[in-house]
């Protein structure tokens, strides 16, 4: 099996930080705010690995640090410490050590990100097709007709009416915007995809269709995915393995069916018991 | 009609115990205590015992849906490598689930919105089989289980209990894992269908599949089991978490 990503001791602190930050925060203290210096320990000591074709779930409530972790990996945020190795085409990259240009290149060509809020993933001033073209232009594809046909294929694949590819995303429904975002993320066939609460706030039927699409893409392309969600149903449906986060820490990890049927940590037990 | 034992088991469970620590209730609930058993290729081992004896717990422990509390669950792979399922890396467990160990649970858990034949074909596709070939094999299995053809193309969400169970069994049997765990696979089936299932299981045994099974009906144990393991409910020692710590 091929490893795609290995994350070790990833931490992210908002604030100046002090020597008590890690000692006085976390699930045992019921806070991620350092009582000494007031810094927010958004994530601390997050470690995991990810293999080709695998979907890893990161589960936790708002503020648990799950989004922070993937935002660091997609270079939206700069981690305070830790490292992450990305394995690609026989090479490995210590991604936090790369310069900004190389990081941008990886994010544009080898990673894909789908945000909860389509405004973060899409440029609302240009058309749906233009959004995909933008990403392709940043990679190797430069020829207009190639870009056009690739965009058409992607939008067809994600079931966006291609008649509407020249419309602005603001004219689309929430579910449709998410499909355009997914098409954009897939544009370069990235081996690694980050999905951050992609179905949150959508109608149930739209959620179902988006989740089905994600599963189909995983089977077709064997992309590795990290799915961040507070929704146990999404975890159950998509993820083979799951991390549970609380107050910035990973409190439990395991096979998804084990996490759901035999949770070890008090918090996970409460979470699973309160699922509808 | 007991067969001669192969000398080497495919699975050896040594001193398996499972208790649940319920943090909210400050309790430890024992479910299985000191279970020992062996399962051999081409043979069926039946777990028997009263409700609460932890029969399903043993199966879930082997599949790692439950984290074993103690003991060793030694599985011998195709290549003859010994793996302790209690401690093995999660990726290795997922790989074994895909290629070597199957589990037919009491109730059908499947992706929603998928057609019955796709659900049954799924384990084959995951192993890399061509979709069409996988679907053909799935249909063959559904047909062997007397599931009306009109149902193959639709999702089992609206099926009766017995129909769902046949879908569940078809998915478990079609991939012919080296070790098959069966949890009351015939509980809600009529006599005719049960007879079909018994035949299919006998065929798998002849093909060398090892099985560890729980049967609702004692007469099925009598007919099908090569080995029987009797389990008893663990002595109820409900200690508070504080006492343990």
Structural summary, described in words:
- The complex is a heterodimer of chains A (276) and B (245).
- With 276 residues, chain A is α/β, with parallel strands linked by helices.
- Helices cover 36% and strands 25% of the residues of chain A.
- Chain A is built from 10 helices and 10 strands.
- Chain A has a 6-stranded mixed sheet with strand order 6-7-8-3-9-10, with helices on both faces. A 4-stranded antiparallel sheet of chain A has the order 2-1-4-5, covered by helices on one side.
- The longest helix of chain A is centred in the C-terminal third of the chain and has 18 residues, at 204-221.
- Chain B has 245 residues and is an alpha/beta fold.
- Chain B is 35% helix and 24% strand.
- In chain B, the strands form 2 sheets. In chain B, strands 6-7-8-3-9 form a 5-stranded parallel sheet, with helices on both faces. A 4-stranded antiparallel sheet of chain B has the order 2-1-4-5, covered by helices on one side.
- In chain B, helix 3 (116-126) crosses helix 4 (131-144).
- Chain B is globular and about 50 Å long.
- Chain A binds chain B through residues 1, 51, 54, 208, 212, 215, 219, 237, 240-241, 254-255, 257-258, 261-262, 264-266, 269-270, 273, and chain B through 20-24, 60, 64-67, 90-91, 93-95, 111-113, 125.
